[in-house]
Design brief:
This protein is α+β, with helices and mostly antiparallel strands. 46% of the residues lie in helices and 7% in strands. It has helices spanning 2-29, 53-59, 63-72, 98-119, 129-132, 150-154; strands at residues 35-36, 48-51, 79-80, 87-90. Strands 1-2-4-3 form a four-stranded antiparallel sheet, with helices on one face. Strand 3 (79-80) and strand 4 form a beta hairpin.
Length: 165
């Protein structure tokens, strides 16, 4: 049904848009995260492999921490540690809007800033939004004893305020 609805021109346009989307993400995130497997022209194919391993060394932040923090932003975590251990493989489809791509990039850049806060000693290395993620709806009620705000925990950049995991 998908193929019939798209037709021949739509079926050849779909991978072009998916490749464009992956390169948009790689370009937006490339200054803060190493991007693996770029071609000689600096471009990626239909997927963008984000290397998060440097954050493990500099801030103690693992790919798992980042994936769980993305849940706080309302994203299902991308493929983790494939094809390279400690990385995120992002494969945006042709149906992703630019607004959604920007929301994802904003969330990843905010996660990088949180890791930078750990690196520079502005945030505790163990008790921080990255290590405590995901922050569930239960975290919104009751006592709060963490050194960061509930808003920072539960509604980071990129998160919608209309629902909560």
């Amino acid at each position: 049904a998908y193929c019939l609805l798209r037709g021949g021109p739509g079926m050849t346009q779909a991978p072009r848009v998916a490749i464009l989307n992956a390169n948009y993400i790689a370009t937006r995130l490339g200054e803060e995260f190493p991007i693996l497997y770029k071609g000689p022209d600096g471009r990626v194919a239909h997927e963008c492999i984000i290397d998060t391993r440097p954050l493990k060394d500099s801030a103690g932040v693992s790919v798992d921490d980042i994936a769980k923090r993305l849940v706080d932003c309302g994203f299902h975590a991308p493929t983790m540690s494939f094809p390279v251990s400690g990385t995120l493989m992002v494969e945006p489809t042709e149906s992703e809007t630019k607004a959604e791509l920007d929301r994802f990039c904003d969330a990843m850049l905010a996660i990088r800033e949180e890791a930078r806060d750990i690196e520079e000693g502005r945030m505790d290395a163990e008790n921080n939004p990255l290590k405590n993620a995901p922050h569930t709806v239960e975290d919104l009620v009751g006592d709060w004893d963490r050194p960061y705000t509930r808003e920072q925990a539960c509604f980071p950049p990129g998160a919608f305020r209309v629902d909560k995991y």
